[in-house]
Amino acid sequence: MLDDLHAILLRNDPVDIGQHMALLISRLLEVRRLGPECWQRFRDHFADHDVCHFLRADPITGRAAGKPRGYAGDAELIDLIYFGWPGELSVDRAGAKAIYDYVHSSPSCAAVRYRREVLANRIDAIASRVDGPTIFAIAAGHLREASLSRAFRDGKVGRMIALDQDPDSLSEIARCHPVGVEILHNSVKDLLTGEVAIPPVDLIYAAGLYDYLPDAVAKRLTRVVCRQLKPGGVFLFANFTADVVDAGYMESAMDWHLILRTSAQMAQIAAACGEDYAIRHWTDAYSAIHYCEISRKD
């Protein structure tokens, strides 16, 4: 299968590439389901195959695998998912653009773009019922949801606080929003130890953070965050689903490993908030990302 796909990629026929990318992603998921040992052996073989090197000519796949900031899902990669093929990139390998087009339209990438809309909508919803709300983004990345939020653009957010441990991400936030955003260069550990105090907030959210947190840490962070919600305040966190169809491609071609969770596991994390909170769960239309919204009762 891999040799056949490599030959098709070399022909650079976008239709053929799209069809065989779909087949590859399906087959990768099948192998992944055979168990961790079999999956690890396959990934080792796959990483050395010419087709894997070819797939990484796609800027999304290549950046995830290359980890220029030391981790796979950096904010520059998320921008590639949000905004499309960068105009400054040349197609330096036949088929790279066709691979990118397929990956960019995949359920996981579509779900990431939808997640940005969810965050922007929550900002607007809070600002519509709270005068000058305090909003806190954990692991904020480039904070691209702010530019989608009408309330933020119209100056109706009282405080927008963005925390991230990546200084490059924070520099981009400062460039895009020289006023209107308070920047904290800190880690999740700093929140858990109390080195950074979360002020009373109307909305706090974590878009992609929980994909990397073990259960114990996720539950602890949930408790810490929920204690800081004002009456009626909301904590929103998201997590990729355990049955996301792109999981095999992400873990092999992208070398991007997330902690995928079921709805039941999301509920267990949310339950760590304790009493006096209302909890709501849902999954996006792509079956790719779970959402959990925890609201402090008035």
UniProtKB/TrEMBL annotation:
InterPro entries: SAM-dependent_MTases_sf
One of the GO biological process terms: methylation
Natural source organism: Novosphingobium sediminicola
Keyword Calcium: no
GO molecular function: methyltransferase activity
Name under which the protein is recorded: SAM-dependent methyltransferase
SUPFAM superfamilies: S-adenosyl-L-methionine-dependent methyltransferases
Record key words, sorted: Methyltransferase, Transferase
